[in-house]
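Inverse folding, one chain.
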């Protein structure tokens, strides 16, 4: 591929994921990623701060979508139902991306530094969700507890969705995971 071809960012991301899968994250250099994508290291650094960020590029968009959906949920919605609206909204980002998500998650799981970065991303989302819930008038500790529960549902639902034999859509898995949480906390 020539340097003039479009979608440099996407080509870099795909090249990085291929190399991380083949060789491992730590054994892959930015130079190798750029070369595989048919680009220069300089171009890589115009798009990404470092080789780790290739895997976390969509984190801000994911968080923004989640938070906005919670903030914009029906005014009468209970905190957990506003969070459910957020969970539903983020599933759209993953349509048609199950195989990519499986490959990405395998790379992350194989590296402690990347697992730590993933946990930081989830903690940041929880903080932002709690803020959105507080913005809806939800008091503490309910706002923080609901945000943490929403992130737990997202994390567990996502892990179920990328499981090798899984065929259900992410939106269905998220709904079922949230229902399971509601059932677990309902007592009885």
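Residues assigned per position:
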């Amino acid at each position: 591929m020539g340097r003039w071809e479009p979608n440099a960012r996407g080509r870099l991301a795909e090249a990085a994921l291929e190399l991380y899968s083949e060789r491992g994250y730590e054994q892959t250099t930015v130079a190798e990623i750029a070369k595989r994508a048919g680009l220069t290291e300089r171009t890589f650094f115009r798009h990404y701060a470092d080789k780790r960020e290739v895997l976390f590029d969509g984190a801000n968009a994911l968080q923004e979508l989640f938070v906005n959906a919670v903030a914009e949920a029906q005014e009468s919605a209970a905190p957990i139902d506003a969070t459910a609206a957020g969970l539903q909204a983020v599933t759209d980002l993953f349509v048609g991306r199950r195989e990519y998500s499986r490959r990405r998650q395998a790379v992350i799981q194989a590296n402690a530094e990347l697992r730590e970065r993933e946990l930081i991303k989830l903690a940041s989302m929880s903080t932002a969700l709690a803020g959105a819930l507080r913005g809806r008038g939800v008091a503490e500790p309910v706002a923080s507890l609901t945000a943490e529960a929403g992130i737990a549902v997202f994390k567990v639902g996502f892990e179920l969705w990328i499981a090798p034999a899984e065929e259900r859509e992410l939106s269905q898995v998220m709904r079922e995971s949230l229902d399971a949480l509601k059932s677990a906390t309902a007592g009885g």
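Residues 112-135 form the longest helix (24 residues). The mean pLDDT is 95.
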